Amino acid sequence: MGNPKGFIQIARKVAGYRPLNERTSDFGEVEQTLNEQDRQDQAARCMDCGVPFCQWGCPVMNNMPEWQDAIFQGNWQSAIDLLHVTNNFPEFTGRICPAPCENACTLNIHGEPVTIRENEAAAAEKGFELGFVVPKPPALRTGMKVAVIGSGPSGLACADLLNKWGHEVTVFEKDDAVGGLLRYGIPDFKLNKKVIDRRLDILLEEGLVFKTSTHVGVDIRGEELLKEFDAICLTIGAMKPRELTVEGAGLRGIHFAMDFLTQQNKVNRGMQIPEKERILATGKNVVVIGGGDTGSDCVGTSIRQGAKSVRQIEIMPKPSESRRQDNPWPYWANILRYSSSHEEGCERSWSLSTRKCIGDNGSVKQLEVVEVDWVNNNGRMAMIEKPATAKIIEADMVLLAMGFVHCVHEGIAGEFKLDFDTRGNIKVDRNFQTSKSKVFAAGDAAIGASLVVRAIFQGRSLARAVDNYLKRKD
């Protein structure tokens, strides 16, 4: 701990966002960066707690105090090396993680946690800039072959470790480019895709093999892979969206959030989308149903497309501005949060349920919504409509961002006739083994939709389980 009084002498300082009128005209990353001295000062605020609750709060168990001190000392190589011990891709999580570590930071008792997430991003960028992140291919190969299905954060983390341990790893991706939701689900204004490509260059030089535009279970049979590979890892995500089941839900102009976000990311990548297939918010009254991060991403994308108005509605109650007594530190704070997209011009509403979609000539024009209350019904929360609160809101485009229910059951999961748990996720044992011999699963496919950082942890854990399996097999 280089500066034991840093947390007293230095105030929390965040980098902030680019000016609003500038950032809404492009899809460049909205977050700014601090200069090197400011960043080292922020790292100096770490208290080096006897019990590092930040590490407890982090799904990958990052060693926060150690690499905070390395940043403070200006030892950027040590900082990135320490991060890589627990996290394959700190340049991703340093940009898009909601930072449960900061919620658990001791300084957050007073609402002034260390800027851990931003420090992580800075350490990653310095690591690349100064040449500390370089390909390190394995010295020896085991001769064992592993297929990883899906190239999202879980699949990439799993593939990266298995490859480093000497196995021959091939990653299959149904889309035209590697990255999963990192590539096509998260907007460029939060994660520039050059950041992904930079890491992929490293992985390729280390010997990973990527096969894109290959939908396993459709373009290639799973049984073929079972014959060719010693183990198969399913990291296919939880891509079955929750549907809107009300009258008029099939009207034109109602789209799933992922279809909308993916298409815009493809356009940003230079792909041409036929005009009749283009999902555009330009000049429209947009309503986003769903109050989470995906809904926020839809808000920011709609604004950049030139929407006339954007409204985000959420069926759950409005969170409190500060922690409630039943939600103490160091647990995740269930409080009201604002994203950069919300600051750009969005009306937000809570406790609103959609009753009906109203159309004209087959296209959505309005929504009928009603206010709801949430009551305790024998230990379970139940929703009841509030009398005389129904109203009509304008909606030329409706984006469904209501979350995901489970992985897609068709395709490879269906071909292998895998068992699913009660929530529809792929059922695995403590070793990530599915009901099919040689087939393993992890990430959102096995635990349900969650955070990128948790997917990375799942992928790392899967890699260890598969490595142990292959050693026993050998």
Polypeptide structure, described:
The protein has 19 helices and 16 strands. Strands 3-2-1-4-16 form a five-stranded parallel β-sheet, sandwiched between helices. A five-stranded parallel β-sheet has the order 6-14-7-8-9. Strands 10, 11, 12 and 13 form a four-stranded antiparallel β-sheet that branches. The longest helix has 22 residues, at 452-473. It has three domains: 6-129, Orthogonal Bundle (Fumarate Reductase Iron-sulfur Protein, Chain B, domain 2); 145-239 and 405-473, 3-Layer(bba) Sandwich (FAD/NAD(P)-binding domain); 244-402, FAD/NAD(P)-binding domain (3-Layer(bba) Sandwich). Helix 10 (153-164) runs parallel beside helix 19 and helix 14 crosses helix 15. With 474 residues, the protein is of the alpha/beta class. A hairpin with a 2-residue loop joins strand 11 and strand 12 (380-385). The model has no long low-confidence stretch (mean pLDDT 96).
SSE map:
Blueprint: H1 6-9, H2 20-23, H3 36-43, H4 53-57, H5 64-72, H6 76-86, H7 90-96, H8 100-104, H9 116-129, E1 145-149, H10 153-164, E2 168-172, H11 181-184, H12 193-205, E3 209-211, H13 222-228, E4 231-234, E5 240-241, E6 254-256, H14 257-268, E7 285-289, H15 293-304, E8 309-313, H16 340-343, E9 347-349, E10 352-360, E11 363-377, E12 380-385, E13 391-394, E14 397-400, E15 404-406, H17 412-415, E16 439-441, H18 444-447, H19 452-473
Parallel strand pairs: 1-2, 1-4, 2-3, 4-16, 6-14, 7-8, 7-14, 8-9
Antiparallel strand pairs: 5-15, 10-11, 11-12, 11-13
Helix pairs in contact: 3-5, 5-6, 6-9, 7-9, 10-19, 14-15
